[in-house]
Design brief:
about 270 residues, alpha/beta, Nitrilase/N-carbamoyl-D-aminoacid amidohydrolase, 6-stranded mixed sheet, 8 helices, C-N_Hydrolase, C-N_Hydrolase_sf, hydrolase, Carbon-nitrogen hydrolase, hydrolase activity
């Protein structure tokens, strides 16, 4: 499987529309990849809280339309990172208005799956107060793999990844807007999630700055043994890596730690 992680830089002087066009162009350049991944909230910036409401869009809004066309043109599965979603149901039932929502688009341009981020960052401010929490785990079945979806701060919660494992995930895809000052945690947690679930982790962060918060970059691909297969630098970059999906089954067979789980739901031994 070939994956391309587009570590796009968020520049506060670049308009959202311009960045959409640039991201779409970068996606089109990845023809030949099986899966392309963009970071969390790249249209607006993960820490640009004051812009969330103004830049919110529906699932079929301008970011989806631009990414749908790009995925179709490139013939790739596209994890289009996440958007600030304005939920139509909020008007009807008093639910949260905004969500941090990831979009996965098939090679024919259709929305294959969306995922509302469950763990919101900020404690008593920012995303945690401005956005609703998702309440559903999300997986996507590709021709050769099952993807488990998580977003940024989710990476700190291993129980979410166990849930995705039990739904058949072999590859965790984690778009993020991770701050540079906590980059050591980013690498450590990506490797931990890979090792404990014997799965691949594809973690795609942003470069640049979000509302003055320097981003970590250093997107990373980790294999089921915890080995780093590829890692980007701090700036804008496309990280492309080929990896062997059969290593998931091989690892789980050679070191069948998952069958010894005693707490919670036990994943079937593969």
């Amino acid at each position: 499987m070939r994956a391309s992680l587009i570590q796009i830089a968020v520049d506060p002087d670049e308009s959202v529309n311009s960045r959409r066009e640039r991201a779409a162009s970068l996606v089109r350049e990845q023809r030949g990849a099986d899966l392309v991944v963009l970071p969390e909230l790249w249209p607006v910036g993960a820490f640009a809280y004051e812009s969330f409401a103004a830049e919110a869009e529906t699932l079929d809004g301008p970011t989806f339309r631009a990414m749908s066309e790009a995925a179709r043109d490139a013939g790739v599965w596209l994890h289009a990172g996440s958007i600030v979603e304005r939920a139509p149901e909020a008007v009807l039932d008093g639910a949260a208005d905004l969500y941090n929502t990831a979009l996965v688009i098939s090679p024919d341009g259709a929305l294959a799956r969306s995922y509302r981020k469950i763990h919101r960052f900020g404690f008593d401010k920012g995303e945690a107060t401005l956005m609703g929490a998702g309440d559903e785990l999300a997986t996507v079945t590709l021709p050769d793999a099952v993807l488990g979806l998580a977003t940024c701060y989710d990476l700190r919660f291993p129980e979410l990844f166990r849930g995705l494992l039990d739904e058949g995930a072999q590859v965790f895809v984690v778009p993020a807007g991770w701050p540079a000052r906590r980059r050591a945690h980013w690498t450590l947690l990506a490797q931990a999630r890979a090792v404990e679930n014997q799965s691949y982790v594809l973690a795609c962060s942003t470069a640049g700055t979000h509302a003055g918060v320097e981003q970590s970059g250093h997107s990373i691909v980790v294999d089921p043994w915890g080995e780093v297969l590829a890692e980007a630098g701090p700036g804008e970059e496309v990280l492309t890596v080929d990896f062997d999906l059969s290593k998931v089954e091989t690892t789980r067979d050679q070191f069948p730690v998952l069958k010894d789980r005693l707490l919670g739901v036990t994943a079937p031994h593969r």
